[in-house]
Give the backbone structure.
Amino acid sequence: MRQLGTSKEIAAPVSTVWDLLTEFDHWPVWGTSIRRVESAADCVAPGVVGRVQTILGFWVPFEISDVVTNDSWHWRVAGVSATGHFVSAIGPDRCRVQFTVAWALAPYLVVMRMSLGRLKRMAEQA
């Protein structure tokens, strides 16, 4: 399936950004469309399941499908392949983060871009 993405350079090490991207406690802070996360796990790992409450108030189930530590993770939301999350070093204290989504969900790029801005602020203040 064809993917579209948006990315941002962040003045922080990969490890800092990875923790923010993968620990569920941080998702409502940087994730523009997420209000709460419930899961028996604390962070992403293959097969981890849970549910997220959207900013509209409804809950949707999720499953983490792929994880490459300090590199990328993908998930399925309500049984549908959702966004991809990638981080790559571009220096010792600098990285690029990219979020991807299926072409059919292109309007969601606006939300992902806002989330990247929040993630950048969090990481650079850490």
Observations:
- The CA atoms of residues 47 and 64 lie 5 Å apart.
- The chain has a mean pLDDT of 96.
- The longest strand covers residues 80-91.
